[in-house]
């Protein structure tokens, strides 16, 4: 069982991760449009973005109560 304060903390953390994920999307998009692309940097940013997406999904699952069969 998750306490209300914990739920608010989780929601706040999820919101922070969404913001960081969106910012990374913007940076990746800008770097991809440049002619002199740094592929290694793009790969690292994309891996970070994927990690954030996974973290968001994990935290959101903690907010969703288990459905009992």
Please characterize this protein's 3D structure.
- α1 (4-33) runs antiparallel to α2 (39-63).
- This protein has 69 residues and is mostly helical.
- The chain has two helices and no strands.
- The radius of gyration is 16 Å and the shape is elongated.
- The two termini are 18 Å apart.
Shape designation: elongated
Provide mean pLDDT, rounded: 89
Q: Which structural category do the helix and sheet elements fall into? A: mainly alpha
Q: What is the radius of gyration? A: 16 Å
Helix content: over 70%
Number of helices: 2
Strand content: under 5%
Number of strands: 0
What is the H/E order?
HH
Main sheet makeup: none
Poorly predicted parts? none
Concise structural overview:
The chain has 69 residues and is mainly α. The protein has helices at residues 4-33, 39-63.
Key traits:
69 residues, mainly alpha, 2 helices
Please outline the helices and strands.
Layout lengths: L3 H30 L5 H25 L6
